[in-house]
Amino acid sequence: MPSLIITRGLGSDGGQFLVNRGFGGTIAGAPYIYEAVAIDGRHLRVIFSERVQTSYALNAANYTITGASDLIVYSVTMETESVFILTTSLQAPGQLYQVTAANILDLDSVPI
């Protein structure tokens, strides 16, 4: 299952940020999480490598965020067909998290 490992911390200006690296899925041409960035302590912007089917990407159950303390994904909203905002339980500064998306299809119905 493709995932993205992220580290959440505080920038020099006090702002929150994520250091991240994405990687491809197991199927050639499959979508994957390209980037994830903390907006604040309860919201995470997830950017996919391509446009995905919104009905799947808007399902909070299709995301898991694990770490020393796992996060709950309460809801998902759409910015574009490749950018989604996850509302989560409180993220801890400096905590290492792994974001995993599953059961999400691109516009050609290729799964993540």
Give an overview of the whole structure.
By secondary structure, the chain is mainly beta. It has one domain: Immunoglobulin-like. It has 1 helix and 8 strands. It has one helix at 54-57; strands spanning 3-10, 16-21, 33-40, 43-48, 63-67, 73-80, 83-88, 96-101. The strands form 2 sheets. It has a 4-stranded antiparallel beta sheet with strand order 2-1-8-5, with no helix packed on it. The longest helix has 4 residues, at 54-57.
Q: What's the architecture in CATH terms?
A: Sandwich
The unreliable regions are 7-24
Helical residue percent band: under 10%
What letter string, H or E per element, gives the SSE order?
A: EEEEHEEEE
Mean of the pLDDT scores?
80
Overall geometry? globular
| End-to-end separation | 8 Å
The overall strand count is: 8
Q: Quote the CATH topology.
A: Immunoglobulin-like
Structural class: mainly beta
Q: Please, how many helices?
A: 1
Q: What portion of residues belong to β-strands? A: over 45%
Largest sheet: 4 strands, antiparallel
Question: Number of domains in the coordinates?
Answer: 1
Q: In order across it, which strands form the biggest sheet?
A: 2-1-8-5
The level 1 CATH classification is: Mainly Beta
